[in-house]
Amino acid sequence: MQSPQIETLGPLERRISLSVQLPAIEAEVAGRLRQIARTARMDGFRKGKIPMSVIGKQYGGEVRQEVIGRSLEEAFTSSVTQLGLRVAGFPRIEPAGQGAADGVLEFYAVFDVFPDIAIGDLSGIEVSQPVIEVGDAEVDRTLDILAKQRTVWKTVDRAAQQGDRVRADFAGTIDGQAFPGGEGKDMWVELGAGRTLKDFETGFIGMLAGEAKTIDVAFPEDYHGKDVAGKTAQFALSLQEVTEAVVPAIDTVFASALGIADGDVAQLRAEISGNLQREVKQRARARVKEQVMNALLETTQLALPKSMVQAEVNSMMEQMRQDLQARGMKSDDASLPVQLMEKQAERRVALGLILSDIAQKQQITAGQEQVRDMIEAQAQSYEDPQEFINWYRSSPEKMQEIRSMAMEENVVDWLLAQVKVTESPTTFEALMGRN
């Protein structure tokens, strides 16, 4: 057998010639059409009695494309196996000529190969490991947030003050003229929340329900509404109702509302502490992992298979379309941040290739117990952990995904043994990215 010829089109792009024998194609097409004729149904003909000319006209083109496609796939697989090539992504098949010569159909297969990867020297890399302890103060802050999220508003018979929520009508004018968005009826405004202009919110302070007054409100120069930016408006306010915030006490009723059956506040605090510790661990690990990934990209130079990058871009675009549709929004390709996606896709492909290479060379795998532990850890954040575990185990795709995650974590552990890790005490707020 003649060895297939290969052309180098770029750092990773290759091209080989493929050919299929036309008589063999036609013979297989004829056989496939005879099989179809035995079972095909068509108006005006009895089953099995449709003329072959009609069958050929109806199905011939599709069958011929399928047969040629399968033959080319077999020829491509045979060629790259002979050449010992590791193909990245899928080949692009192109016609090599205008037609068949001597009963042969000629094609080109253009494809990428995997790059050679040489990990750089990691011994000089320093990685900062966040260190934090979750104590009573962090639990107290979390309980405070949970309580405020369950705030109820109670109508009061007094003047409005900072922190209240008021119901009011308002109408704004500039130089005596109304402007778009300057009028509202029965609108709720939380004083001091900063959701509207400061002058507007403070204008209600000191007013009683049933009172009315006019205030000046200055719009900043950079205000999003160009028609009113930098101008001063007069707002006629009419206050209808004043309400104050009632934050629930941290007691048995509160604990019961958060799923603690017997209302034990101590148990609630223990569960919150456990959740915070898991979140802290995950955040700290993510910080370390990001540093390691950046170090890998900085120390490892490699060419990226264009087909893999484009496939990743396509996947990211499809995911964004689905996310936008789930939110009731429409999108087209022109509105998607393709350039940003390309950068992210290149990073993902590069890291995937590097991590896979390390796993192969260092014989790093993921054990069944580790996979089980990772699933159970994820399940702890769900109301019914066992239901989540059963759902995960029933999906081959999800199980493969978790195995890949486990192996990636093992690769990260191997990398951490190659770099210098220094502990860096930090605060809970800083780790969580909160002000």
Give structural notes.
The chain is α+β, with helices and mostly antiparallel strands. The chain contains twelve helices and eleven strands. Strands 6, 7, 8, 9 and 10 form a five-stranded antiparallel β-sheet that branches. A hairpin with an 8-residue loop joins strand 3 (87-95) and strand 4 (104-113). Helix 7 (306-326) packs across helix 8 and helix 9 crosses helix 11. The longest helix is centred in the middle third of the chain and has 35 residues, at 265-299. It starts with 5 loop residues before the first strand and ends with a helix.
Overview features:
four-stranded antiparallel β-sheet; 12 helices; 3 domains; five-stranded antiparallel β-sheet; 435 residues; Alpha-Beta Plaits; single chain; alpha+beta; Chitinase A, domain 3; Trigger factor, domain 2
Summed up, what is this model?
This protein has 435 residues and is of the alpha+beta class.
First-residue to last-residue Cα separation:
70 Å
Tally of individual helices: 12
Please indicate the percent range of residues in DSSP E strands (runs of 2 or more). Answer: 15-25%
From the 3D structure, determine the CATH topology of the largest domain. Trigger factor, domain 2
Q: Give the number of domains.
A: 3
**Coarse morphology:** extended
Q: What is the CA-atom radius of gyration, in angstroms? A: 34 Å
Mean pLDDT: 90
Order of helix and strand elements from N to C terminus: EEHHEEEHEEEHEEHHHHHHHEH
DSSP, total strands: 11
Structural class: alpha+beta
Label the CATH architecture of the largest domain.
Orthogonal Bundle
CATH class of the largest domain equals: Mainly Alpha
